[in-house]
Recover the amino acids of this structure.
């Protein structure tokens, strides 16, 4: 489920929810059975870059009981599984800036702070920087 709401001409808020029963192996962007996120972004009108966005989001990801047990018993998914799991929900705070570079080309800089990466309280927290390129055809 995705919901977006414009709060003003330059401020937008959003929330997203997702759910999976965790009994079927998935191959997607990551292994997640429950996810909730919310955040907001500002359009660049105030700094004369109307197609740019500055935003922040919080994400809470979790695994189903079956998925947790499978990993704790030594199971492996396509990204997770090292034979030991001290389960904890992933908590991610993300900040990003998206710049309109040229026509339909956008570049983004992103920084995430992740607690319990891989759903394991024994790991992290970690900082993950990223860059993205988006092209509209």
């Amino acid at each position: 489920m995705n919901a977006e709401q414009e709060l003003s001409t330059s401020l937008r808020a959003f929330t997203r929810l997702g759910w999976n029963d965790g009994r079927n192996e998935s191959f997607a962007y990551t292994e997640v059975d429950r996810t909730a996120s919310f955040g907001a972004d500002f359009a660049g009108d105030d700094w004369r870059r109307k197609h740019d966005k500055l935003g922040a989001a919080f994400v809470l990801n979790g695994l189903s009981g079956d998925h947790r047990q499978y990993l704790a018993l030594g199971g492996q998914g396509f990204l997770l599984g090292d034979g030991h799991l001290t389960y904890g929900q992933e908590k991610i705070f993300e900040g990003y800036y998206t710049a309109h570079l040229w026509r339909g080309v956008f570049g983004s800089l992103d920084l995430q702070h992740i607690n319990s990466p891989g759903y394991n309280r024994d790991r992290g927290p970690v900082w993950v920087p990223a860059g993205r390129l988006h092209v509209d055809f």
